[in-house]
Amino acid sequence: MLFRNAVRAVLAAALAALALLGGQAVAAPAGSPGHTAATKAAAEPKVLTYDSSESAEFAEAVDSGVKVWNENVTSVRLEKADAGEQANVRIVADDGWPRAQTTSLGNGTVYFGREAVDEGYNTTRIAAHELGHILGLPDIKPGPCSSLMSGASAGTSCTNANPDASEKAEVEKNFGEGSSGAAEHQRKLVFKDFRP
Fold first, then answer.
1. What are phi and psi of 65, to 5 degrees?
2. Which one from 130, 167, 170, 172 is the annotated catalytic residue?
3. What per-residue confidence (pLDDT) applies to 64?
4. What is the dihedral of CA 148, 149, 152, 156, to 10 degrees?
5. Number of other residues whose CB lies within 10 A of the CB of residue 187
6. Is 172 a catalytic residue?
């Protein structure tokens, strides 16, 4: 008897609460303002693929440079291209000075030059710096070590591979929803290099 009365009391309380809440909860329809395709797209970063198959001994540094950007910005993400896939960014090792050739925002070739490495510059910093050009950042020279885009002007003792707050903000703006970054950065055959 006590059990039956307890069950009735719980059911009565549940029904009263449901009546106060206006009935059954219903998910918002897919076309409602709180659940639009634009809302979903705004939360997802633009994905750029990269091909590091020609980066030779710098493959690990390239992956570290990619990790730097993926950990520091949310509007764009770099992912390794699948075999045979046309990548947005191609990374090639050569004997010259490190440089980036952009074809448009988020697209181009990074030449990971051995000359700077031979002079003692940090390989992760080089990779992150050149990828910064692909993401639309200009050189800031001369500049302090705290600025990734200061490149070699910060000296061989500088191992900072992280973008500063303004560099992060510019990349976020370049790839953010509704940004005019793509139009501002449409360029053909522009070389940016790590050299001071």
1. -65, -40
2. 130
3. 98
4. 0
5. 13
6. no
